[in-house]
Amino acid sequence: MVAGEYKPLIEYESLGPEALLSIPTQDHYSPMLYVIATRQQGEIVTFPVESVDDGSISMLTVGSPLLKEALDRRHTVTAIVRHPEKVEKREGLIAKAGDVYDTASLVTLVRGNNAFMSAFNPGWQNPNLYDDQVRGTASIIAAMKNARIKRVLWVGGAGGLQVKPGVRFIDGPDMPLWARPRFSGHHQCFRPIAERSQNLTGPI
Question: Span 26-201: which CATH code?
Answer without folding.
Answer: 3.40.50.720
